[in-house]
Amino acid sequence: TESYSQNYFTDLKNTNLLEALNNISGIRGGNTCNVCNSSEIRILGLPGVYTTLLIDGVPLMSPLASSYSLNSLPVSLIDRIEVNKGVGNIAYGTDNIAGSINIITKKPTGKNFNVHLNTNTWGETNSDFLLSNKINEKSDFFAGINYSFFSGRQDKNNDGFLDLANYRRFVFFNKLNYENKIFKNSLLFRSNYENRAGGEVMF
Q: What is the pLDDT of residue 6?
């Protein structure tokens, strides 16, 4: 198991998980659609459907998990990422053939509010908002919001086809933890809205 802390993303100035994981040996991000610019993560050269994605050890059981989940979680919520290459535990699902990527979220230590904003020369904008609080000695919670968009209809090579798909993404992530001497419970909620449009410039 390879473990990467949040400092790994900070040092590389990555704005999303897909960019950061692309710098790990044996892992590559690939474009699965030239119209909508959706991507997938490939471990050991195998397609994304053979990679299991998890949040705090819970597999993301969705047909679109390999295409959209890596960019639908605010980076500010991540404590570390654990990467396993090769066939893993069957408990994570039957698609765990190429390997698995387990995203471990932060544990709140007090009342905090963080904002992360970034943009690029293409006009692509990404924003993360994180609120966390330790309610008492046994329970804590955090909530994160990610809002990203790109609305520039750019065709820099003049081939009549948009270089990047226009998109608007809104993600809400919430986690409530309760722990005592006997057991530990976590309640997690994630909602994702994404609208993409690409293709011909005149469309």
A: 77
